[in-house]
Sequence to fold (668 residues):
Amino acid sequence: MLNFVEKLGAYVLYYVNEAGRMGIFLFFSLLNIIKPPYNKIASVLKQIYVIGSLSVFVIIFTGAFTGMVLGLQGYNTLTKFGAEGLLGSAVALSLIRELGPVLSALMVTGRAGSAICAEIGIMRISEQIDALECMAIDPYKFIMAPKFIAGIISMPLLTALFDVIGIFGGYAVGVGLLGGNAGAFFSSMQSDVEFIDVYMGFVKSVCFGLLIVWLCAAKGYYVHLERKGGFGAEGVSNVTTSAVVLTSVSILVMDYFITSMLI
Amino acid sequence: MKTDSEIIITLSDVWKSFGTQTVLKGINLSVIDGKTTIIVGPSGQGKSLILKHILGLIKPDRGQVLFEGKDINAIQKKELNEIRTKIGVLFQNAALFDSMTVFDNVALPLREKTVASESEVREVVDEKLSLMDLRGSNDKYPAQLSGGMKKRVGLARALVLNPRIVFFDEPTTGLDVALSNEIYRFFFKTQEKLKYTAVIVSHDVPKIFKLADYVALISDGVIQDCLSPEDFQMSSNPIIKNFVEATMGTIYSSEAMEV
Amino acid sequence: MKKITVETGVGIFILIGLLCLGYLSVKLGDVSLFGRKQYLVKARFANVSGLKEGAQVEIAGVIVGKVSKIDLDDYEAYVEMLIEPHVKIQEDAIASIRTQGIIGDKYVKIKPGGESEYVGAEEEIIETESTIELEELVTKYMFEKG
Fold:
């Protein structure tokens, strides 16, 4: 019995500590974005390339097909009520408010988040992070800050791309394939989408960008402190998996709270 | 025999445990300025851990680590960073940044920690790389290098700021005899040229004794003794005696008996 | 060579992203980027039930602005509208609250007048008609019949 209590205590303590580490990690990363000396543009650009540019194709594909399926489902459902004129606003609103930010964040988590986690995890286990510290180079400044800046810049742009591609995907199916009214599609969209919708999508994407880099980088950074032994290639692979799962879940949880705050 | 002015690093009563396992049980060690101190001991006894304590990467549970008389865990981060610029480290697996070329790896401390212009950086890096016989590898990535070359690049990077003290974490692990001899040659060559204090963690006994001014044996979480190589081999401490016999074989120990 | 690829990639990405963001906010989100200075016109209604901020303002079915503020003032509905600068409203124009379709959104319809004087910025449209409530209409009809 005592053993059980002891184990439970250790378990709880571990997660409390992990939450604490994560918080400290976020604090120092953000601090090092605003603290001079500022990061070199080249290192930030490189991270935008890795997180943003390389995700463009994934975003275009997922965006197009998400929009297309919305067009298909929306058209068939709205026709029942004779409201196919609202297809444009239905597609645009669901993309801009929810699907765009969430789905592109999930795609970026899978593509770039896992890469960030594995990269930093390998730097940790191969002592590269220790080496940085021994050279009196702050890893937060040198590795983390450029990634955070890149995440915060890239995510809204990717989300906007996702939205626009999705809208035209919905247009292609709803109007091009199923023969809806082109004028009604765009006019309903323009009259029903408000600034608050675009703003909400933007806020979400910025928060998700931060969240992805934060959780994935912190998981990798603390790979050596993982409960289930964070050593070697297996440690990195485990921590990458758990980082992707944790980030994806957090995105959905955070999505709910941002929506409830802004709506 | 060891006066305070000559001591650059002191560990006094350093304790460290992980979970329920206590690894360091009161380490006392002094590193003498300008000399080469070697820490030997069976693996898993926390040799590398001592280095990490000296570098301030790990905080001890108890005890102090003094660098030039200052407790490195009690000073400001800024001051610690100042100390760290006087330190060079060659890590076990060289710890090169694998997304950077050899040149950028060696240039990193200069670019980040000095105001040197790009042409000055180039000059210093080229000088250090040629000292290590690494000319022509500037644009290669660490993954394209052999183990011995990686270590040499790591050493070049450790020396690029002309440190006062250089730490070597198992400098010859994973290298064959020829390559480890090569690393030792580079060590001699650079120490003669740059006159740094060296602390080497190794289990390459007895070869490593040729480099040493002092040898310290860690066993059971404490430093058994810190002696000159000659005294070390003839020590009457039973643990040291055992270690010497186990690692050097009968020839060495019988020689020791005869003397 | 490698450096050029990174920079070009980032450049293209940021350009595409900004274009999409611009499209979303300017075209759909009604953000006026180029400082088209709309002017403010006020009106008082007895009842604006169902009218929301951001609702359209139409003249002859053409959207000329939107409702920017709805407030209660002396037991009357006080409505502020932002009107496109090139649209002039005569002083005797009539503002009324109408519905798009039977259950559609409420909007403000402005019926042009005949005077040569125009309503300036921050001025008021005097003549207004309130929301026509279906409920009231039905009640009235029944009472008159009875």
Notes: Chain A has one domain: 41-262. The interface with chain C takes residues 45-46, 48-49, 52-54, 56, 92, 96, 153-154, 156-158, 160-161, 163-165, 189-191, 193-195, 197-199, 201-202 of chain A (CB under 8 Å).
